[in-house]
Design goal:
The protein folds into 2 domains: about 10-140, Response regulator (Rossmann fold); about 170-360, Hypothetical protein af1432. With about 375 residues, the chain is α/β, with parallel strands linked by helices. The N and C termini lie far apart (about 80 Å). The chain has 15 helices and 5 strands.
Length: about 375
């Protein structure tokens, strides 16, 4: 009669006659395990097969029922197993104590077979309902997590697809998107505990910054090929057209954002980066000639990532500079093009940025 499909009961009682009577009563309906002391009951309760319900005597030598219940509740393997106290102590105070400690029910001795069977059946049905609800919740949580991960991946793929539109128009950029994304994540992480930036650079913000970085030059899709891919120096009118890519990018995202029900933090950062990543700390950048902290932090971070990668990469209008020369050029722009504190973090960890460049290299100079 050890059918594993039947609920498993554990009886813990130091009196052999009680174990016999209860076992004889319950075995026709359930799989029954037995222990004649609290210590052994604990061992069985946390072993396989774990019981679905425990019938626990209160008055036992060694560990009494209250102590066993406390130990059961302290163990993750048995904490949710319902316990019915069996006791000859029939006072309301004792019953209140047992129920207050977390017992599911309370049966006084001498037992009545019909009462025991009814109480056991009720508690097993309640446990089955709880387990079913828990399993349903776990299934729902897993499905929600799956869909969130799928949506997240879809968003990332969509971002990369849009960013690659600009990259296709500007074939010199190669793996520029992957590199600048890596630089952005590293730079933000390096500055997350800096007094000027720690309130802004939360883990969520850093994640969104890295995700937004590939969108910085999306506006280049609106620049004519003869300007975008011109091998020589741009004329003043051509340069004026080239500069419009910053606003074109943020305007495109602004239009896209109008089609959604509520603003997204990702779009806020992406628009900042696209619009202002060519601004300079001293106010000589474009398109709005912002200066200092008036430039959004996201754009100041992107400025360093973008310029570094442009310096070390081949362009139609220039060769790739060696890493050391690129570092020196950028160091000269401290307080001019770049936020001094952000540039200091970049220079202090320069080799880490070089490592990212080499990981996603294409036509880079390595010396």
């Amino acid at each position: 009669m050890n059918d594993p499909s039947r609920p498993t009961l554990l009886i813990v009682d130091d009196a052999p006659e009680n174990l016999f009577v209860l076992s004889e009563l319950l075995q026709p309906l359930y799989r029954v395990l037995a222990a004649n002391n609290g210590e052994r009951g604990l061992q069985i309760a946390t072993a396989e097969p774990r019981p679905d319900l425990i019938l626990l005597d209160v008055m036992m030598p060694g560990m009494n029922g209250y102590q066993v219940l406390q130990a059961l509740q302290a163990d993750a393997l048995s904490a949710n197993t319902p316990v019915i106290f069996l006791t000859a102590l029939s006072s309301p105070r004792e019953e209140e104590r047992g129920l207050g400690m977390g017992a599911a029910d309370y049966i006084t001795k001498p037992i009545t077979p019909a009462t025991v069977l009814a109480r056991v059946r009720t508690q097993l049905q309640a446990k089955q309902a709880r387990d079913g609800l828990q399993n349903q919740n776990a299934t729902l949580e897993a499905e929600v997590a799956r869909r969130m991960a799928e949506n997240d991946l879809t968003q990332q793929v969509s971002i990369r697809a849009l960013a690659h539109l600009a990259e296709i128009r500007d074939p010199d950029t190669g793996k520029h998107l992957a590199r600048t994304q890596g630089y952005m994540a590293l730079l933000a992480d390096l500055l997350k505990n800096h007094p000027r930036f720690q309130a802004t650079l939360t883990p969520l913000c850093i994640s969104l910054l890295a995700r937004s970085a590939p969108m910085h030059d999306i506006g280049k899709v609106g620049i004519p090929d003869h300007i975008l891919n011109k091998p020589g120096k741009l004329t003043a009118p051509e340069w004026a057209v080239m500069q419009t890519h910053a606003k074109l990018g943020s305007d495109a995202m602004e239009l896209a954002e109008q089609d959604i029900e509520r603003p997204l933090e990702f779009f806020t950062l992406a628009k900042e980066i696209a619009h202002w990543h060519h601004e300079k700390w001293d106010g000589s950048g474009y398109p709005d000639h912002l200066a200092g902290d008036a430039i959004p932090l996201s754009a100041r971070l992107m400025a360093i990532a973008d310029v570094f990668d442009a310096l070390i990469s081949v362009r139609v209008y220039k060769p790739a500079f060696p890493f050391g020369i690129a570092r020196d050029i950028m160091a000269e722009q401290r307080g001019k093009h770049f936020d001094p504190d952000i540039l200091d973090a970049f220079l202090a960890n320069f080799e880490a940025f070089v490592a990212i460049a080499e990981q996603y290299c294409d036509d880079l100079v390595s010396a």
